[in-house]
Structure formats: C-alpha cells, structure tokens
Amino acid sequence: MCLAVPGRLIAIDGKVGVLDFQGNQLRVSLAMTPEATIGAWLLVHAGMALQEVDPDEARQTWAYLQEMGVADVPAELA
Amino acid sequence: MSTPAERLATACAGRRVTLMEVCGTHTVSLFRSGVRGMLPPSLKLISGPGCPVCVTAQGYIDAALELAGRQGVTIATYGDMVRVPGRGGSLAEARARGADVLVVYSALDAVAWAAKHPERQVVFLAVGFETTTPATAQAVLDAEEQGLANFRVLTAHKLVVPAMLALLAGDGGDGLDGFLCPGHVSVVIGSEAYRPIVTRHGKACVVAGFEASSMVAGIERLCEMQRDGQPGLDNRYTVAVKPEGNPHAQALIDRVFESCDATWRAMGTIPGSGLRLRAAYRRFDAAVHYRLNTEVDDDPGACRCGEVIQGKVEPKECPLFGNGCTPTNPVGPCMVSSEGTCAAWFKYGR
After folding, report:
1. 3-state secondary structure B91-127
2. How far is the alpha carbon of B229 from chain A, nearest alpha carbon, in Å?
3. Which residues of A touch chain B, with CB atoms under 8 Å apart?
4. What is the DSSP string of B191-253?
5. Minimal Cα–Cα distance from A17 to chain B, Å?
6. DSSP helix/strand/coil, B341
C-alpha cells in the first residue's frame, strides 16, 4: 500500500497538478510539493504528490514496476 | 564486478545475521525481484508489522462491516480492505448482500464522490502508515472547505516508528540485528525518524527503495554494520528520502491529526502509535458520530497473523497456512493483502 509512483507534472491548476503517467493523466494534490514546476517528476501516492525526484530515480522506479510486472518504463525515460 | 549475491555473501561473511524488513511493499519486492533468493544461508530476513491491512485490529473491520450494513451509508475504501474477514464476513460479502462499498484510489476521490451524492453518508476507511495519512488529512480539509456534512473518516492510521520501538520493548527484538526501513514512508517522515531505534536499542536502521539494487545495498550495509559491531543509521534511498523527510507532509498530518494510543492486531495497545482527528475536526470522525469502538481486537481462532506481523513465526508455522487459508479464501489479513506476509509466502515462497 505504501508504494508511490512517479509521474510528470504537465499543468498546474492552483493546488492541484495534472500529472502524466505513461499517457494517463491524473489530477493530483500538490499540497506537499508546492515548489514543483512544470516538467518535474513527482512521486505520487493516493492522489498526493509526496516528493520531487530526479528523472533517474523516476526511471528506476518505473524499472521496478516493470520488474514487478505492473508497467513499462515510459518512453521519455527509457 | 561482483554480482549482488556475491556482495551480500561478502558482507555477511558466513555470520548469522537476522534482519527485519518492516514494509509490506519490501516483503513482496524482495520475493519478486529475486533478492530473497540471493541471500546467503546464514542471513535471515523476517517480515515486520508493515502491512497496513494486516496490523488493523479486528474491531475496526467489524466496525466497518457494521457501518456497511446501515441504511444510507456508503463505505469508501482502498481495495486492500475489501476482502479482509471480520466476524460478520467481509466488505466484499456485505456488498454482495447489497451494501454500498466503493473502492477508491484516494481519500480525495471519496470526498469528490460525497460532494456529488449528498443523499449518501460517506465513510472513508482511513488505514495506512505515514505515506497514506496525508491524503486523509487533505480529504478532511477539502470536506471542511466544501462544507460537506456527509463525509466522515473511520481512522486507524498508524505510525511506523512507535511500532518498531514497541516490538523492541517486547521480545520481538531478540536476536534482531537491524531493520530494512520503508522507502516511501521515509519520504514523509525522513531517515532521522529512526534514530531512537539506534540510540535506545542499538539496532541498525537502513532506509532502502524498492528496486532490487536499492534493497541489496540496504541489506549489504546492515550486514556491514553487524560485522563492524557498529549499528547505525544509514539511507540507501537518498534520491527520494531526506533526513528530515517532507516538512509539508508532516505539517499537513499535524494540522489534522494528533497522536493517540492505538490497538494493533495481536500486538495490543501501543502508546502513541496511532493518529486521531484533532478536536477541530472531530465532526468528521465516523467512530464518534456512529458511536463505534474500533479498538477491540479479537483474532480468529487458530490464525497466527498476530505473530506473523511481529516476525515471531513464519507463515508456514501457522496451521492454517495453505490449509484452509489461501489468497482465494483468506482467514487472516496477512493472506488477504497482496503485501501481506502470508500472501507473499504463499505466492513465492513455498
């Protein structure tokens, strides 16, 4: 239950961000990552962005999800 | 260039080392990534109380079931909770009998649903550790901002470090050399949160991510600390985890919640290990509104989940494991959640 997934911030609407997860776009609360700017990779859990991470970490987490058989590494990180 | 298995064997050097992975996501990842299969024979890795569904007291499940049976109530929950058996069946069974059980991805989705359905009384089942708690806090704030009178939370949020300390204060820490500490809980609480475990109990703590390389690095570091007789605190997930954690997340939790004593499945009441809504937000507390007692614990008969979550026994030592208790027909919570120790052992470790 405590696994966060990285998504890329593509739009900001007040305290809510639109994040792209391999083509799926979700609205996510930015209450805990108020400094995040467009293009940032954010670790997201239960609709909340927990932390900004660098692209390398985002790639590693997606690689892990691939290892777990859950998802593939996004093209922009591959 | 040595392989991960060789690195672990070198760090362990044939000594008996016993480590606990606290987090349920680590439990599953260690199996799936093959890291568990790489461990040298003298290194024992036991699972700890880090699966939120598994540590939730039976009374909470029963209270949720009781609510699900009430007219006009919609239960909103993370999927993990739906199949956990209570005394009167599970939420899945309640749904089959006509109860309104809504599976949500986030507490925020439950608030949005409540806003669209003012005729329903929505109760969100707020379980989980510090990774999950901020979403509940934000949900309560959103409900307040929107003036919703039909959204409440049944809280059983728990804190990781007090549980680890309680484990060590009992006999759970006997023979334990250190902890592989959770990745994404630590993003919120920070690696320094584990300092009391090192200073008070002399147990090593290393934070690791969920990728195989990060877990191997974490276990290797714990073995080195054991070898050197210097249990310390280290972070092998620095890309995401800072020493101080995320202050915005902590402030959000602190604004809405205050710590309280909490009942853990089979571990009893652990002082300061849970969170309850602050007085200013008490009107969102479903337990208060519906006068429910969630702090009762009453494990099903022969089930040994209570000992499993404390690392006292391995799943195969339970008489029900694979013998009346399977992921399809779970008796105890550790077999329900995909991150439960029994479910992981059933799937990968038999």
Report:
1. HHHHHHCCCEEEECCCHHHHHHHHHHCCCCEEEEEEE
2. 31
3. 1-4, 29, 31-34, 43, 45-48, 50-51, 53-54, 56-57, 60-61, 63-64, 67-69
4. GGGGHHHHHHH--EEEE--SSHHHHHHHHHHHHHHHHHT---EEES-TTT--TT--HHHHHHH
5. 14
6. helix
Tens digit of each residue's pLDDT (9 = 90 or more) over B125-160:
999 999 999 999 999 999 999 999 999 999 999 999
Complex confidence, ipTM: 0.84
Looking at chain A, the number of H-run helices and the number of E-run strands are: 1, 5
In angstroms, rounded to a whole number, what is the distance separating the alpha carbons of residues B186 and B240? 9
Binary contact (A43, B32; C-beta < 8 A): no
Cβ pairs A/B, distance under 8 A: 114
* Residue A55, C-beta contacts closer than 8 angstroms, at least 6 positions apart: A41, A77
The full length of chain A comes to: 78
Global pTM?
0.91
